[in-house]
Structure prediction request, 253 residues.
Amino acid sequence: MEKKWSNGWSKQLQSTSYGAYEEEMKMLIEMPLAQAIVKSLAQNLSPLVLSFLTPMLKQSVDSDLHLCTHVREGNGEFQISYVERQMDLLSDLNQTLVDMNIFAKSRNAHKVSVFVASDTQSAWSWFGKNAPSNWLMIKPSKERRRPESGVWFGEHGSRTNENLTQLEKDEAMAEAVADVFALGECDALYIPRYSSFSVVGIMLARADGRKVFFREASNPWVSPDVFKNSSKFVEYPDDHVWRHIDAEANSEK
Prediction:
């Protein structure tokens, strides 16, 4: 059923990182056909992508609770037109871990695994140092040569990928694709900041009825400073909640 985005809209959700996503992306998140397409893609990944993805998924197989997040440092986009992409990395990391811990305790989960997709190695290292000692951090399945900061491709004005061999380019892309699909294999996915990188993971999570949390902010378009004061993540409504929202919208007509 198509969601009534105009009448049944949640103001609380709009004031989270979700609010920064383009309307077309928001529609894709709940479009059954789009969900079916990404599910089909997930089941037909190339051997090279699977060589990165499968070992990561195997690490969480014994977990009571598998949590994921995408923490984006950014690709140098600090012009005024990219205000919503400027970020306070430490604030994102801190609040994501705080809310993950709260959620894990609410589930009485003892074996917790965490997958962190990021364009900076420091995010993974920070989680490893600050997460509860009994939590399992999902490790990259392969060691690859990496730039000192950012990513090999997609970085604003960067030409660093010209230094890569074709195999290194293929592996860099395969690892990124593996991370995209790994984000959709969690019991709960945390989105502290807008990024198109996370859309497929959100769609996969929604297709399987898994939880997605967006970080609260006063207005995700105005200034990166608003995230410093945000205190929680807001759960994306499940189908039961959407039915209630739609029913309220219909009753108001």
The longest helix spans residues 89-106.
